[in-house]
């Protein structure tokens, strides 16, 4: 009798794992994956603050987190996803940054397969010493969740 009961339990567990969705059986799709994309800054000498708005396709990806990059490691960052497809990032470094590199890193969660542009809008860079706004030029990046390729968006300081 014990063997029969044990056999029934084993069969029930196998049926549950194989036929019940979401029961630890995994998935073949790529949804839910995570990608970390930096925002690069060139010629950041003396930059003490940045206001960055990054626009992306929220049907393909969504922001999970924003953390400091290697260039911004002495600063502080805060962010807000005001509406789907737009993250507003505030960065400050009272001493001012020096050089070029990744100021922040944005973690994206995949919603579906596809390619999303990562456009920078309303970027403002402020000099740490004078508090004057600096001249900025931007170039968009992209993230392709189909083949896990990406290009980082870039902020160039100066003319």
Summarize the biggest pleated sheet.
Answer: 7 strands, antiparallel
- Helix coverage percent of residues? 10-25%
* Low-confidence runs of at least 5 consecutive residues: 2-30
Q: Rg, please?
A: 22 Å
Order of helices and strands: HEEEEEEEEEEEE
Structural class designation: mainly beta
What general form does the structure show? Answer: elongated
End-to-end Cα distance: 84 Å
Helical stretch count? 1
Integer average pLDDT: 84
- How many strands appear in the DSSP assignment? 12
Strand content: over 45%
Can you tag this structure with a few keywords?
single chain, 159 residues, mainly beta, 7-stranded antiparallel sheet, 5-stranded mixed sheet, 1 helix, 12 strands, 11% helix, disordered N terminus
Describe the structure.
- The chain has 159 residues and is mainly β.
- The chain has one helix at residues 2-19; strands at 34-42, 47-55, 61-68, 76-83, 86-92, 101-110, 115-127, 133-134, 136-139, 141-144, 149-151, 154-157.
- Strands 2, 4, 5, 7, 8, 10 and 11 form a 7-stranded antiparallel sheet that branches. A 5-stranded mixed sheet has the order 3-6-1-12-9, with no helix packed on it.
- A hairpin with a 5-residue loop joins strand 7 and strand 8.
- The radius of gyration is 22 Å and the shape is elongated.
- The N and C termini lie far apart (84 Å).
- The model is unreliable at 2-30 (pLDDT under 50).
